[in-house]
Amino acid sequence: MRKSTARQSEPSFAKIATTGVLAWLLPGLGHVYLGQRNRGIILGVVVAATFWCGVAVAGVQSSVQPIRRTAWFCGQICAGSHTLATVGWGRLRSTSHPNERAGFAEEDIAVIFTGVAGMLNILIILDALASTDPKYIRHSIGTRHGAGSQDDLQGSP
Fold it and tell me: Which residues span the domain enclosing 122?
């Protein structure tokens, strides 16, 4: 009997898989799916802003380059749909403007920004996956457990 109750408290594989795919596809969407709407929106905006600021520095043709910068692309692809959209847009743009490229410094900055956005989304995906477990408890930063009063938290005598 205990085993069946333990299994019921465990998240289903479908819920875990759906959360992971949604969190990868559009950063923050996994949290929204789990009912953490505000958290998901904030995380999604942060990743999108970081990624697209990088693209704005060097343009779509120079930011994400799967063949030329494969190692960075491994990080960038973790930003999900942002990376896929940039690759597609960059390929379309390269057919009409084949010689349009950013300078060396701009391209490096763009690649770093987009790569960092993807790697940040790895943490967001892991947080969303951890949130699927009903036994997972997120503690607030700055909260001390067992503190007597608000004065204790602020360090007052």
Answer: 13-136
Tell me whether residue 8 is in a domain. no
* 143 in any annotated domain: no
Percent of the chain as helix, strand, coil, to the nearest 5: 70, 0, 30
Q: Is residue 67 part of a domain?
A: yes
pLDDT in tens, 55-94: 999 888 888 889 989 999 999 999 999 999 999 998 888 7
List the Cα angle 133/82/37 in 5-degree steps.
Answer: 40
Burial 18-44 (b: 16+ CB within 10 A, else e): ebbebbbebbbbbbbbbebeebbeebb
Phi, psi of 149 (to 5 degrees): -155, 175
Separation of first and last alpha carbons in the chain? 52
Asked which of 2-11, 28-37, 46-55, 57-66 is least confident by mean pLDDT, the reply is 2-11
Q: Are 91 and 134 in contact (CB under 8 A)?
A: no
Token pair listed for 80: 């999900």
Residue 138 CA to residue 101 CA, distance in Å, equals 45
pTM exceeding the 0.85 threshold for the entire prediction: no
